[in-house]
Design a protein that fits this description.
single chain, rod-shaped, 2 helices, mainly alpha
Length: 68
Amino acid sequence: MKYKQAFQELNKILKDLQSEDIDVDELTDKVKRALELIKICKEKIEKTELEVKKIIEEFQRSSLEKEV
């Protein structure tokens, strides 16, 4: 699942949870799904952060090598 899809679904669940019409049985399922989506989003953000740091480090190394 892509980050954008997970984030959109999570926002929909949050809107549903704010609704006064939500059923108790449905509430449990939606909270479980929201937690799954939060985990997906968190993992994607952490992975992207590591990749960006790696790219920056490689750029800095190559810049230093060019100076020498």
